[in-house]
Design goal:
Elements (H helix, E strand, L loop, with lengths): L6 E6 L4 E7 L31 E7 L4 E7 L5 H6 L3 E6 L6 E6 L5 E12 L6 E10 L9 E6 L5 E2 L12 E5 L3 E9 L5 E10 L4 E8 L3 E9 L5
Length: 232
């Protein structure tokens, strides 16, 4: 598999199109993709993820090595998704030597959550961190439905700036109504030094803003959730 993280994943409906992943050239700061690694989506960020009518998913990754278009006409109910296996598509490389798996969910009755994760560290704690931030829903039990919002290895730590905001790869997730949003956060400053490990839970809402603060080791994490679709 080519290890340069270039290409696009795009979804279109009757009105709009959104890039879920877009890398126009090799980013030297990224860790090369290995077998069974997960590609961290980079969008959408500010636009809505709601859709109208049939969907088209267009995948073109690794300089065209993995390329396909899927047409999704039926939207399964939230209850169906809760009981059944994840929706899955497989793309075989042009040379037939590798595969990429796309796991996805479509909710017929959901809200949008815009997320901010803020690191409030004591003076003696470095502001360079690694770890994982993953979102999921109480409606769905399968791990494949987790959205990876932040994934950094110890060799690829990031510096948290003056805003104290963790640089999420994407900040918008869909959450079925009548469910809870789970935000699992595991942060380290080194391989062995864990500074935060906990789960935030928020009841899905159609609109509004919620904040929660939790204590870690010499730090605090504040999560802010803005509910509802942003009006254009």
């Amino acid at each position: 598999m080519p290890n340069e993280q270039v290409g696009t994943i795009k979804v279109k409906d009757e009105v709009n199109e959104h890039f879920l992943y877009k890398a126009s050239r090799t980013d030297k700061r990224k860790t090369p993709i290995q077998h069974l690694d997960e590609i961290v989506l980079t969008g959408p960020r500010e636009t809505s993820i709601s859709a109208k009518g049939p969907l088209t998913l267009i995948v073109d990754l690794f300089y065209g090595a993995y390329k396909d278009t899927f047409h999704i006409r039926d939207c399964p109910s939230n209850d169906w998704i809760e009981k059944c296996a994840p929706l899955e598509r497989e793309i075989t490389s042009q040379d037939g030597r590798g595969d990429v798996y796309i796991f996805y969910a479509i909710f017929d009755n959901a809200t949008e959550a815009r997320l901010e994760v803020k690191l409030l560290a004591d003076n003696n704690i470095t502001n360079e961190v690694c770890g994982v931030v993953a979102s999921s829903s109480s409606k769905i039990k399968s791990l494949e439905y987790s959205s990876m919002l932040f994934v950094k290895k110890p060799s690829d730590k990031v510096k948290v700036g003056r805003s104290k905001l963790l640089p999420l790869s994407t900040n918008i997730v869909a959450v079925p109504l009548d469910s809870e949003l789970f935000l699992d956060i595991h942060l380290k400053t080194s391989v062995e030094h864990v500074i935060f490990e906990d789960t935030f839970k928020f009841r899905a809402e159609r609109a509004g803003t919620r904040k929660e603060l939790k204590n870690g080791k010499n730090c605090k994490i504040q999560v802010k959730v803005i509910w509802g679709r942003r009006q254009s």
